[in-house]
Amino acid sequence: TDGKAFALRKELKKYKTNINDYP
Length: 23
Description:
This protein has one helix spanning 2-20. By secondary structure, the protein is mainly alpha-helical. The protein is rod-shaped and about 35 Å long. The mean pLDDT is 79.
């Protein structure tokens, strides 16, 4: 379960980073 949560959090972080790349 921890691995799944970690992967999900990693994807979410990547998504947020991509969002922040746009004005």
